[in-house]
Write a structure and sequence with these properties.
95 residues; alpha+beta; 2 domains; two-stranded antiparallel ribbon; 15% helix; globular; binds zinc ion; M15 family peptidase; Zn_M74/Hedgehog-like
């Protein structure tokens, strides 16, 4: 299976960092997957994935399962300002 070469961006090549995971090591790549990316479909057909909307959605996810980690608050301290990488749509389960 071929993987997109996204890891080198910002790491060993110039550009914005888009992932800290090497190809195949993301929780998205486990089978079954331990991660998902979310966008919120609105009644008018538009899609929201701004930080505010995903912050509200993250509260539902965290209330549903304490093992959920949100890409807007990786260290799970309730603060979104202290993250090295914001991945607002990303949710994953811890082990
Ligand atoms: Zn993701």
């Amino acid at each position: 299976m071929a993987h997109l070469p996204v890891f080198p961006a910002g790491a060993s090549e110039a550009g914005r960092i888009v992932t800290y995971q090497k190809a195949g090591t993301s929780n998205h790549n486990k089978l079954p997957s331990w991660a998902l990316d979310v966008a919120l479909l609105q009644p008018d057909g538009s899609v929201k994935w701004d930080a505010g909307a995903l912050l509200l959605f993250s509260r539902l996810m965290l209330a549903a399962n304490a093992r959920v980690v949100w890409g807007g608050d990786w260290d799970h301290d309730g603060c979104t300002d202290d993250q090295q990488l914001h991945d607002w749509p990303h949710f994953e389960l811890t082990g």
